[in-house]
Amino acid sequence: MADKNQYRYLTKTGLKSLINGLMKDRVVYGAVKKDGFPAFGRITRFEDLELSQTPTHLSAKEFFFPQRECLLKFDIPTGAHEPVVASQGQAVIGLHPCDIHALNLMDKVFAHGTSDANYLTRRADTVIIGAECFPDEYCFCSSVETMNANAGFDIFLHEIKSGFLTHTGTDAGRHLLGKLTKTVKASASRIKELDRLKKKKEGAFKTRLNAPAKDLPGIYAQSSDSPVWGKIGAICYGCGSCNNVCPTCCCFDVKDEVGANLKDGLRVRVWDGCTLEDFAKVAGGHNFRKTRAERLRHRFNRKFRYLTDKFNALFCVGCGRCSRACLVKINIAQVTNELIAESTITKNR
Amino acid sequence: MNSLLNQQSPKTDNLVSPYLPSAATVERVTKLTEKERLFTVTPLAAIGGLPVSFDPGQFFMCGLPGYGEAPFSVASMPVNSHINGSPKQSFDLCIRAVGNLSNAMHRIKKGDRVYLRGPFGRGFKTDELKGKDLLFIAGGIGIVPMRSFIKSVAGKDSYGKLTLICGAKTPEEILFQGEMDEWKDMGMDVRLTIDKRHPGWKGNVGVVTTLISSLKLKPDKTVAAIIGPPVMYKFVALALRKKLIKDASMLVSLERRMKCGFGKCGHCQINSSYVCQDGPVYRLTDLAGLPEAF
Ligand SMILES: Cc1cc2nc3c(=O)[nH]c(=O)nc-3n(C[C@H](O)[C@H](O)[C@H](O)COP(=O)(O)OP(=O)(O)OC[C@H]3O[C@@H](n4cnc5c(N)ncnc54)[C@H](O)[C@@H]3O)c2cc1C
Ligand code: SF4
Ligand code: SF4
Ligand code: FES
Q1: What is the ipTM of this complex?
Q2: Residues at CB less than 6 angstroms from ligand 1
Q3: Would you say A306 and A104 are in contact if contact means Cβ atoms under 8 Å apart?
Q4: What is the CATH superfamily name and number for domain B2-120?
Q5: Taking Cα atoms as reference points, which of A98, A20, A29 lies closest to residue A62?
Q6: Mean pLDDT per segment of 10 residues, for chain B of length 294 residues?
Q7: How is chain B split into domains, by residue range?
Q8: Is B198 an 8 Å CB contact of chain A?
Q9: How many Cβ atoms are within 10 Å of B122's Cβ, its own excluded?
Q10: What is the reported pTM?
Q11: Domain B126-286 annotated CATH 3.40.50.2300
Q12: Domain membership of residue A334 as a residue range
């Protein structure tokens, strides 16, 4: 949580100056409405911005890890390969705390060992402006310790009746606030209003996990043979929507696209998903995760155990996007609660 | 301004694309069977003295523009020689035509170029195996990575008894039979088997495990390396346990779909282990608790 003294008050007009200022030398993306639903999109006028209380359908990962991106250009006759690390000065406005946590997790994946220049360069060229949210029936960030973000953003906005309370996460954020707009020290009454809103948010979760976050990797470790996997595997379509909408799903495929002249082309990476049938298939036809049950078990374990073992953090940020998107209503929180109910870890408590 | 922004994000100074391959010249193409060809390649960066350095069992991502990339194990150790007086290093890749890239590789000729990234992963640590009896068990195309291992230890005094068990579906599909005769001359016990009876084949018939029971092994001194199709591992491990070989003395090399080679694309993941980084060579004990390993 930010130090109370750090909060600065920003009016709605003040936010407009900030966004307009950012638009002068950056491409700005932010929360907008598409077909009536909250989403991220390009913002060319301040009025386009519609900060949403509930999560966007798709996460903001596409601005750092696009669905399709060129890794290199090649020329077939000469064999020349030219790397492409495309990045632009950009800003993304309206990321919720869970989205910011998700970005911090993606940072770990793309920075460990060999650095992924494409992702990391984009990340460094992006101003992040976070915004407070309010849970819908799918959100469960309060159960996975991602309800508040302390780092990973430049500026954070808490909407109150008369405008916003802001706090900053980086020197760059402080610099931008100072340069592009005007803020004043937050008054005690406004900070009280914020406290009230936070309490209201904390009490508003309809979905909660029935075990403390630190127990989840252990609970998943006991669940390999649970009947739950067969049950959800039997109804899953293997459509990969859950992978697409998830802010921490960042697996990809790499393929070559040859131009119409058959001379040059691009090596591109595109999003891939572990729930898709071919994801773990090798030559000769052997599939290391043949059934949908095995593939869902892999995806859920990746969020709560496998990557936790590797990076020491839960990789589910509780945004509920996968549950919201699933056509057959497989709900990651409900599934996890079923595993919790089966686990001896919770029974021994 | 961006320098300020960089403070919170991971460092991006001097980042180079890890996806950029470097060219290698194909020195020689040897047709082994209808489906397998051996390519001797010289990375261009290695001409002029830059050493190519890898452990047996490691792999490269090898690609052709327009056909993508795929992982291929080193099939030999680097060999030093000279072109026009300047030193160069070359090594072998053996490629089975199964798909898009590998079929295109089969159209490659001497003097053409291929494009490599790597080496990646963990291979066989030959230094740590000094003094051991080594038992190589290869099924099908598993002999390819095994060949780099065998070539780095065969004929050296620092290892104990060397035994190779190699199986394939038909006699023609047992690769490198000519070299196996050389390995025999260097003192290696070579035993071959094919899956089903075949006209003209006088050797053993049956899966590789059928050759294990007759071996005389010193359990404390033996390390087994096993490379083959996924189904093979469980049965070979069972047969070796009967011979009192411990799981910690069994090394296996795993195959997975791989798109990056350095822990990003997620394709090779088994639980928290990435085969491209932690493997492809594992101790069997490292795979305990990973039911999806094979
Ligand atoms: C560490 C390691 C080392 C290896 N070493 C060697 C080696 O030394 N020699 C060797 O020959 N091979 C080796 N392989 C295997 C080799 O990388 C694969 O066979 C590779 O797929 C060949 O690429 P390709 O483009 O020719 O085949 P692809 O076009 O990828 O097709 C190969 C097969 O993959 C499956 N497949 C591919 N795409 C799809 C899809 N979209 N849907 C369904 N199935 C699909 C099919 O079964 C197809 O027959 C190794 C693999 C690993 C992981
Ligand atoms: S697994 Fe589902 S709830 Fe968790 S971060 Fe991904 S989309 Fe959100
Ligand atoms: S969104 Fe639902 S149906 Fe589609 S793959 Fe994910 S769990 Fe299966
Ligand atoms: S090959 Fe991409 S993660 Fe291992």
Answers
A1: 0.89
A2: A 278, 281, 283, 285; B 59, 68, 70-73, 94-96, 98-102, 141, 144, 255-256, 258, 280
A3: no
A4: Translation factors (2.40.30.10)
A5: A29
A6: 38 77 93 94 71 90 96 91 75 94 96 94 95 95 95 92 94 92 93 91 90 92 94 93 94 94 94 93 92 82
A7: 2-120, 126-286
A8: no
A9: 17
A10: 0.92
A11: no
A12: 213-256+271-344
